[in-house]
């Protein structure tokens, strides 16, 4: 009986223990856990579910790094790993292996990737017979095998070109020669070759060694050392083993210094650029516009890079393209600039510091924007030396300063505006006479020691005489008759205080800092001194009413759809046609009349109008300060050209007559070129 009871207890104990045995995890549960961890990026838990044989080939850290490096490289996001609704198919002849299907989806730098994969769950035969993932490279991407890699390649968009009105390239894509070294071909005389190369290039040996020590350098790769420009073009390196030349794509500026401030330049993207413009997704291999049109139109010129993600075999053969986004090349920009006129105007300065603008006065098309002196923008691309940069920085002529976007006191070239205001309001007339004696004039004792001074003591019998002889006193007296309120109101119609409506940024011209608050400031303003400041472009535009029946023309900088702008007919005139014609007649007299200050620009057979001016830069009347000379000239018959030029420091060089001498040859050549076209 005891024996029976013992047997019953043993049976019950076995039954109890068997009921406590841990329930076996099924293969489908392993599969579901694995893809859940995968989607969450929990690579440590994934590693725990893979087979022991797979774990023997890599550590948990290496396993996680493999996924992370691939996903970071392709810029993966929105990962989705979902089970496919196919039945589990046990491998034929082996019930210990189950195959599960899944769908892998993700967004990447090259667009979405969508692939269907299969995962095998196998029973562990070596130990406790648990179900484990039979991990293989195909679980990264289905077509991958041992030795394969995932490759991400950027497909660079080509930067758009910048063209002038006739299709001439102001900024273009070209190539330059680069001198470099293939380290594996230097041979046993490596040190001697580097020492000799250092001597020929006039660079330190450490500079060359630093290039060769870059992390990416391999024995068979070409390592760029310097760009072959300037004096280096004539050097021979054929006797040096391992030293070679290659062509490299580069941005080219055919007009160099003549259009430097207009085109600007591009440079390699910096960390600061990437941080400053996160929305542009800049890459360290990109270039970005740093000045001028290259900067203004950078987004349009740069286009959008593409990307390609491929699986590559160990021998470099592409096995499969997982995703690809084609690059979108940058947009070409067409502007109204006439590159030949731009060059001609720049060369006319011949090193003088100054600025100039040229427009078509009927349409407002900008034909030239010049700043002198300038720099060569090609040097930024070809390799700018520290010595070159320092020479620009230390140059008292400031070649890096863009003068055509700066505001200057216009001096007497402002007088036609004052004359037009008096005529418009009926205060002046073309033949209005004034008796003016001497070189100095003050209204009365209330002006204290202040006075208006004129350059020549000549007989001024009319407003036309005052303009032809550039008489300060006559215009100051006219302004006082007009009054500050009316003068300011009418002058502001010429665009003062308003932004020029073009993509190229210009500061606002200003008539006064806080309003014309006294008669002395009003008198000085009448002949472009006081607080009046304008750019050369704004000055040229302010003369357009004189040739357009009183209409002030807006500037146009970019050509759209390949069409030239038409004459601006919709604007409200700032002057009556009669007033405009009267001022135009006076400006014709400035050039036609042998006594006129602009007679140096006279061209037989052409109707050239203009006005000279000298702006004094000094704190007191008695001080002998610097002077900026101005000349505005235009084609009064065909209205094909209007130029405004300013040269700094013309004192002791003939004042504004120096500017006329510089401008006249450009004007003559341009007018004659128009005749040849006809």
UniProtKB/TrEMBL annotation:
GO CC, sorted alphabetically, is:
plasma membrane
User: Which residues belong to any copy of the NTF2-like N-terminal transpeptidase domain?
Assistant: 26-148
* Biological source species: Paenibacillus albilobatus
The similarity annotation says: Belongs to the transpeptidase family.
Question: Which keywords does the record carry?
Answer: Membrane
Q: Which GO terms describe its molecular function?
A: penicillin binding; peptidoglycan L,D-transpeptidase activity
Q: Which domain of life is it from?
A: Bacteria
SUPFAM superfamilies in the record: beta-lactamase/transpeptidase-like, NTF2-like, Penicillin binding protein dimerisation domain
Q: What does UniProt list as this organism's lineage?
A: Bacteria, Bacillati, Bacillota, Bacilli, Bacillales
The identity of this protein, by name, is Penicillin-binding protein 3
Give all residue intervals belonging to the Penicillin-binding protein dimerisation domain: 156-321
Any one Pfam family match given in the protein's UniProt record, by short name: MecA_N
Domain (Penicillin-binding protein transpeptidase) spans: 356-657
Tell me the Gene3D superfamilies matching this sequence: DD-peptidase/beta-lactamase superfamily, NTF2-like, domain 1, Penicillin-binding protein 2a (Domain 2), Penicillin-binding protein 2a, domain 3
Subcellular localization(s) per the UniProt record: Membrane
Q: Which PANTHER family match?
A: PENICILLIN-BINDING PROTEIN 3, PEPTIDOGLYCAN D,D-TRANSPEPTIDASE
Tell me the GO BP annotations in alphabetical order: cell wall organization; response to antibiotic
Query: What InterPro entries is this protein classified in?
Result: Beta-lactam/transpept, Beta-lactam/transpept-like, MecA_N, NTF2-like_dom_sf, PBP_dimer, PBP_dimer_sf, PCN-bd_Tpept
